[in-house]
Design goal:
Elements lengths: L1 E6 L9 E5 L7 E7 L4 E9 L2 H7 L14 E4 L1 H7 L8 E3 L1 E4 L2 H10 L4 H27 L1
Parallel strand pairs: 1-5, 2-4
Antiparallel strand pairs: 1-6, 2-5, 3-4, 3-7
Amino acid sequence: MRYQIRPALFEEVKEGWVWLSPAATPFPGHIRIYSPAMRRWIVCEQRVIDTTFRRIYNDPSKGRTLPSQGSVLVISAYYRDRLGLESDGGSDIELEIRQARGPIAGVIAGVTHPSSAVRTATWLGLLSIVLGGLSLGIALILR
């Protein structure tokens, strides 16, 4: 499906979600966005564009607008760069968006999150799982 790409709001550039209309899935949660042209993908949270978001985004003092019809994706520069999309947004791009399920989707979303604090916490959590498994294995062997 072709999506009109718009830049994220300034206060949301380090958030792990994108705003989407229409919704890719009926359920809130993680989605996988794939760019066939660039052969890159991301996993992030889905937020659905509603009237409140449109009112905030279309604030006349900000000089930006969302189209009233068609498929729209409001996405940060970080995620646009990871997908290999134009850095300023404002274009029409072919993307495949589908639901991402399971704990692995959450881990991938954490490892590729725009915030370095979230990325670091995710890597430390993964490291602790590995070290815990290693400790358990050693304890069972030496028992």
